[in-house]
Amino acid sequence: MTRNPWKQDQRNPAFFSSLSMSEEVTYADLKFQDSSEMENIQEFDQVGVKAPPAPSHVWRRIALALILLCLLLLIGLGVLGSIFYLTSKIEMEKLEKLQNFKDKLQNNVSLQLIYNMDSLEKIRNLSSTLQEMATKLCYELCRKEPEHKCKPCPEKWEWYEDSCYREFKEYETWQKSDSTCSAHNASLVKIKNKSVLEFIKSKKLKYYWLGLSPKDYKPEIDLDETIISSDWFTRNTSDLHGVMYCGYIHNPYVYYDLCSRKNYAICEKLANPVKIESILMNEEPGERM
């Protein structure tokens, strides 16, 4: 029959002694754990929550560095803001000065333009006055010396007011007479104002073609009526065809005859402006002593 070891150990006094010590150690551990848990519970009841562990020296240094960096950034932003403000202020002052200079310059230019315009107008008036005086003086000189060098008309042409006149003594048809005038850059005389009328009447012309438009009939009018006439020639002489009648002067009337008949011609053209220097220099350089 096999024996039970457990039962044998129970009979051994040493076994009981060992068992008793083991139970005491276990009881002590349990009691220590219970006391630790009670202390934690009491600490939790007093504080409310368990305090976190204290931060280490590394985190303190990092926090301090971040604070310093933020301060440096704030200082930098302040400096940049001050620089930007000062720069903007300086630029605004420069822009204001430039605008003031521009306004003054425009004002000066406007005043100068006004002054120049006034001066130009005065010069024009003075030039016109001098030209008028030279014209009157030259006209008086030409009355004494018809071919005076100040005369604004070509040689053999008579000067009256602002036109030059010349009589051609060759008998020619009206169309040929008109061509003769054109060859001298002139045209047959047209009487369009009272002054010219009196000038033509003073010459007592007879059988001189006038610059009247050809007609297909033979009217007869007084010379004075030609001023208000609308019959002054404006067409080309090449338009003449068939039997046409042209006007000629036989002081103090205007008659019409066949354009193919032959009469004298009197031409007119615009006179040149009188040269002032021709008035001031009465003698040629070679004629001076």
From TrEMBL:
Superkingdom of the source species: Eukaryota
Q: Which CDD domains match?
A: CLECT_NK_receptors_like
Q: Which InterPro entries match?
A: C-type_lectin-like (IPR001304), C-type_lectin-like/link_sf (IPR016186), CLEC12A/B (IPR042916), CTDL_fold (IPR016187), NKR-like_CTLD (IPR033992)
Which SUPFAM superfamilies has this protein been placed in?
Answer: C-type lectin-like
The question of whether Cytoplasm is a record keyword is answered with no
The record ties this protein, via Pfam families, to: Lectin_C
What membrane topology is annotated for this entry?
A: Single-pass type II membrane protein
User: What keywords are assigned to this protein?
Assistant: Cell membrane, Disulfide bond, Glycoprotein, Lectin, Membrane, Phosphoprotein, Receptor, Signal-anchor, Transmembrane, Transmembrane helix
Gene Ontology CC entries for this record = plasma membrane
List where in the cell it is found: Cell membrane
Q: Where are the transmembrane segments?
A: 62-87
Query: Main location per UniProt?
Result: membrane
Annotated Gene3D superfamilies: Mannose-Binding Protein A, subunit A
- Signal sequence region: none
UniProt domain C-type lectin: residue ranges:
160-268
The record's SMART domains line, in alphabetical order, gives: CLECT (SM00034)
UniProt keyword Glycoprotein present: yes
Q: Which GO terms describe its molecular function?
A: carbohydrate binding; signaling receptor regulator activity
- Name-wise, this protein is C-type lectin domain family 12 member A
